[in-house]
Specification:
Layout (H helix, E strand, L loop, with lengths): L1 H8 L32 E4 L4 H15 L3 E4 L31 H13 L3 E6 L3 E4 L7 E2 L5 E3 L2 E2 L25 H6 L5 E3 L5 H17 L3 E4 L7 H9 L6 E4 L19 E3 L1 H11 L22 E3 L23 H12 L4 E6 L41 H13 L7 E5 L4 E6 L3 E6 L5 E6 L5 E4 L17 E4 L4 E6 L3 E6 L3 E3 L1
Parallel strand pairs: 1-2, 1-13, 2-3, 3-9, 9-10, 10-11, 11-12, 12-13
Antiparallel strand pairs: 4-8, 5-6, 6-7, 14-15, 15-16, 16-21, 17-20, 18-19, 18-22
Length: about 500
C-alpha cells in the first residue's frame, strides 16, 4: 500500500499532500474572515482560463447563488512535457502569469466576479517550489523566470530551502515521522524553509498582492507539510483579512491531525468524501441520519466538504474510493444529499474529461488551454469540459441550501425505509427525498412546509414572473403533508424560495 503511494510520488508534488501540521503555537492568530452567510456553496473551476471564469460568474454562478470560485494557482509555474495538470502546483515565481492568463486578465476576473456577488478563492502553493532542477541546465517558468537547483530568479536562493538529508533525494517517505513530513520534499519539489523570516515575508507578500486585487480567500495546498506555527507566522505578516481553508488529508492514521490547523482557518475533511462514497456504493442511505461529526469528522463549522476534488478524482491526494462525474446519476444523488445536509461548507467540483490521470486541461498543441463554450443551461460545449456545477440537480440545490441555511443544523421529519430511501426537512424551509432504490417510491410525507405548490428543483425551477414551474410541482396541504412520487435512483427537493402558489 505504502509502496504504491511512493510510485505515485514521482508524478506530482501534490498528490501526497495528506494534510495536517505541527502543534498549536502561541503566535498571534491571524483574523480569519468567515464565509458569507448569504451564499453557502462554492465551486472549483479546475484549470479554467480567467476570462472564462469571469463570464461564468456573470452568466451563471452569480444568478444561481454560488458564493465563490476556487481557481487554480495563478502564479508562474513550471512548464513540463505534455503540460500535465500538476505543473500548476510547481511554482517558479509569484508573478501572475500562468496558463490560465496574465495579471490583467486575473484582475478583470476578480472584479467582474465580485460585481455579481461571487468571491474568488486562490489555490495557494506555499510549501514548495517546482521539482528540483538537477539537469545542470537553466529551465524557465511560464513567465520566463529562470530556475536552477534550489535557485529561483531573484526570489529564493539555496539557503531558503530545507535539505533534510534523508532517503537519497531529500523526499518524504515516512508519513509517521512528523519532522520528515514537514522538512523534506514532497516528491522532488523543493521544500521551502517556512521558518525563515525571508521566506515568510515573500509568501505573505504574495497573499497580500492577491488580497489587494480583491481575492477573498485561499485554499492552502499541502498544509500538513507546513507546521501550524509557520502558517500562523506567515498569515500574521499579511495586512488584510481573508478566508482560509487548508488541505489536511487526515484519516486518523498519521501523527499530523486536522485539529492542529483550526487556528489558521477551516480544514478540508477528506473523510467526508470517502464515507459518503461508501454509503452510496453498496451501503445504506439509512445510515446517514447522523452523518457528520458523529462519524468522527471534524466539527462542521470548521469543515470544507466535497464528493471529489482535482486530486482524489484521479486516485491521488488521499483519493480512490470516492464518487466522481464518472458515476453519473449516483454522483448527482450524492451531491443532492451534500447540498441538503447541514454539515460543512460544500465545494462542488467542475472537471474536464481525462483517461490519463496526469493529463492537463483541454489544450491546443502548444499547451494553450482551450476555452469553455457553453452548450445550454446545464452542459458545456464539445467533449472536453464537464461543468458538473451546471447539472440541474446540483445547480438548483445551491439555492436550496442558501434558502434553508437559516434553519442552522436543524434536521426534522427524518424518514427512511431502513435501506436506500431517505427523506428529511430543513426546519420548515425545505424538504428532500432521495431514492437510491431500483423501484419507485410513492407515499405521503410530512414535509413540515407551509401549504402551497412548490417546484421540484431537482428537475426544474420557477418560471420568472409566472406561477409556473419548468418541472414537476409538489402540492403541500394545510397540514404540511404531500404525496410524493420518486422514480428509481432519483430525488425531489422543494423549498420556500421555489414556492409558486401560496
Amino acid at each position: 500500500m505504502r509502496t504504491h503511494r511512493f510510485l505515485l510520488m514521482f508524478l506530482s508534488c501534490v498528490w501526497l499532500t495528506n494534510a495536517s501540521v505541527s502543534s498549536y503555537s502561541e503566535a498571534a492568530t491571524h483574523r480569519i474572515r468567515s464565509p458569507r452567510p448569504d451564499r453557502t456553496v462554492f465551486v472549483h473551476l479546475f484549470e479554467w482560463q480567467w476570462k472564462d471564469v469571469a463570464r461564468e460568474c456573470e452568466t451563471f454562478l452569480g444568478p444561481k447563488g454560488y458564493a465563490a470560485v476556487q481557481v487554480s494557482p495563478p502564479n508562474e509555474h513550471a512548464v513540463l512535457p505534455k503540460y500535465p495538470w500538476f505543473q500548476r502546483y510547481q511554482p517558479v515565481s509569484f508573478q501572475l502569469i500562468s496558463r490560465s492568463g496574465n495579471r490583467a486578465e486575473f484582475i478583470d476576473m476578480v472584479q467582474r466576479c465580485k460585481a455579481v456577488g461571487v468571491d474568488i478563492y486562490v489555490d495557494a502553493v506555499l510549501n514548495h517550489m517546482s521539482w528540483v532542477n538537477r539537469s545542470g541546465q537553466t529551465k524557465f517558468g511560464s513567465a520566463g523566470t529562470p530556475y536552477e537547483e534550489y535557485s529561483y530568479g531573484n526570489i529564493f536562493r539555496p539557503s531558503d530551502f530545507h535539505r533534510c538529508g534523508r532517503n537519497g533525494d531529500d523526499s518524504v517517505q515516512n508519513y509517521q515521522d512528523r519532522w520528515e513530513v514537514q522538512n523534506c520534499n514532497i516528491s522532488t519539489c523543493a521544500d521551502l524553509k517556512t521558518e525563515s523570516e525571508h521566506v515568510r515575508g515573500i509568501l505573505a507578500s504574495y497573499l497580500d498582492d492577491l488580497t489587494k486585487i480583491g481575492v477573498a480567500g485561499f485554499r492552502i495546498d499541502a498544509s500538513k507539510h507546513i507546521s501550524s506555527y509557520d502558517l500562523q507566522a506567515i498569515f500574521g505578516k499579511t495586512n488584510r483579512n481573508f478566508y482560509a481553508y487548508q488541505e489536511v488529508i487526515d484519516f486518523g492514521t498519521e501523527p499530523i491531525r486536522s485539529e492542529e490547523y483550526f487556528q489558521t482557518g477551516d480544514v478540508s475533511e477528506f473523510r467526508y468524501a470517502r464515507n459518503i462514497a461508501h454509503v452510496f456504493n453498496g451501503g445504506k442511505l439509512a445510515w446517514l441520519q447522523n452523518f457528520g461529526s458523529n462519524w468522527g469528522f471534524i466539527p462542521g463549522y470548521k469543515a470544507v466538504v466535497f464528493l471529489d476534488n482535482h486530486d482524489n478524482q484521479r486516485g491521488h491526494g488521499g483519493g480512490g474510493d470516492v464518487l466522481t462525474h464518472k458515476d453519473g446519476q449516483r454522483y448527482a444523488l450524492a451531491s443532492v444529499f451534500m447540498l441538503a445536509w447541514p454539515y460543512g461548507y460544500p465545494q462542488v467540483m467542475s472537471s474536464y474529461r481525462f483517461s490519463d490521470p496526469s493529463a492537463g486541461p483541454p489544450a491546443f498543441s502548444d499547451g494553450r488551454t482551450k476555452p469553455v463554450f457553453m452548450n445550454g443551461a446545464s452542459t458545456c460545449g464539445g467533449q472536453d469540459w464537464l461543468c458538473e456545477h451546471r447539472w440541474t440537480a446540483i445547480a438548483n440545490m445551491v439555492a436550496f441550501r442558501n434558502y434553508t441555511q437559516i434553519a442552522g443544523d436543524n434536521i426534522s421529519k427524518w424518514w427512511t425505509n431502513d435501506n436506500n430511501a431517505i427523506a428529511f426537512a430543513r426546519g420548515n424551509r425545505g424538504f428532500v427525498v432521495i431514492n437510491n432504490e431500483n423501484h419507485n417510491l410513492n407515499r405521503w410525507f410530512d414535509t413540515g412546509l407551509p401549504a402551497g405548490e412548490y417546484c421540484d428543483v431537482i428537475s426544474g425551477q420557477p418560471v420568472k414572473r409566472s406561477n409556473r414551474c419548468s418541472g414537476p410541482v409538489i402540492k403541500v396541504n394545510e397540514r404540511g403533508w404531500a404525496e410524493i412520487r420518486v422514480t428509481p435512483f432519483s430525488a425531489i427537493a422543494i423549498h420556500g424560495g421555489a414556492r409558486i402558489i401560496f
